[in-house]
């Protein structure tokens, strides 16, 4: 039985709770962080390192994919694009980073083959998030097939999406239950010292804590 898992840890709230769940479920963890040229890259990396110190995974690794900033196409990586406070229902937000989760999963699968990890945890949210196409259950189902056909397949590698069908408020409640250190996470798309409180990610986070009935430990402007 394979008891080793890779956890994709961005430093955000959803990946934090995913890490807390993986910590509960799997005896040996490897944390993977990808810096992709996002506006708050330095802050997210700081959070990743703090979460590594908190959960003490057996392995940790940071991968550079800053070419996402070079190709542009997202307000997260292109500072000439304005960050929205909300996105109209039924549209793909300008904060969507083209095919990002496929690239993150590809890196995780490659590392999983090397270290013999049978599980990859990713904190994607479909039910109550921004509507990114690579956060849909169908995407992960299809990517699971790609893993089976595109690896040596010496052992099964399974994608685990524990918060996929949770609301943001449910994610907060689950994190509180697991004593997840929310103060070590970061959600703001714009700022790295005080959260702006106005971008879509801040808005979703603040609403989630309010609905769950807990105080958000992050400082806001």
Report the major sheet. Answer: 5 strands, parallel
CATH superfamily annotation = HUPs
Apparent shape = globular
For this structure, the quaternary state is single chain
* Percent of residues in β-strands: 5-15%
Number of helices: 7
CATH top level is Alpha Beta
Q: So, CATH architecture?
A: 3-Layer(aba) Sandwich
Structural class designation? alpha/beta
Task: Give the strand tally.
Answer: 5
The main sheet orders its strands as 3-2-1-4-5
- Poorly predicted runs: none
Label this structure with key terms.
221 residues, alpha/beta, Rossmann fold, 5-stranded parallel sheet, 7 helices
Structural summary, described in words:
The chain has a five-stranded parallel sheet, sandwiched between helices. The protein is 39% helix and 11% strand. It has helices at residues 13-25, 41-55, 67-71, 100-115, 137-150, 168-177, 200-212, and strands at residues 4-8, 28-35, 59-64, 119-121, 158-160. Helix 5 (137-150) links the parallel strand 4 (119-121) and strand 5. The model has no long low-confidence stretch (mean pLDDT 96). The longest helix has 16 residues, at 100-115. It has one domain (4-212): Rossmann fold (3-Layer(aba) Sandwich). The protein is globular, with a radius of gyration of 16 Å. Helix 1 packs across helix 6 (168-177) and helix 6 (168-177) crosses helix 7. It has 221 residues and is α/β, with parallel strands linked by helices.
């Amino acid at each position: 039985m394979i008891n080793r898992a890779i956890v994709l840890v961005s430093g955000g709230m959803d990946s934090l709770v995913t890490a807390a769940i993986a910590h509960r479920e799997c005896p040996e963890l490897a944390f993977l962080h990808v810096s992709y040229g996002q506006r708050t890259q330095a802050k997210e990396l700081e959070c990743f390192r703090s979460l590594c110190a908190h959960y003490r995974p057996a392995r940790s690794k940071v991968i550079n994919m800053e070419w996402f900033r070079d190709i542009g196409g997202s307000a997260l990586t292109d500072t000439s694009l304005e960050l929205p406070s909300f996105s109209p229902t039924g549209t793909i937000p300008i904060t969507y980073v083209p095919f990002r989760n496929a690239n993150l999963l590809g890196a995780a699968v490659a590392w999983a083959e090397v270290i013999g990890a049978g599980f990859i945890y990713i904190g994607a949210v479909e039910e109550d998030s921004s509507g990114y196409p690579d956060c849909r259950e169908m995407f992960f189902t299809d990517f699971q097939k790609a893993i089976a056909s595109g690896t040596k397949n010496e052992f099964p590698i399974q994608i685990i999406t524990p918060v996929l069908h949770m609301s943001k408020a449910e994610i907060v409640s689950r994190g509180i239950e697991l004593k997840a250190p929310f103060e070590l996470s970061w959600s703001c798309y714009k700022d790295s010292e005080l959260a702006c409180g106005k971008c879509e990610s801040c808005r979703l986070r603040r609403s989630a804590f309010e609905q769950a009935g807990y105080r958000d430990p992050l400082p806001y402007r």
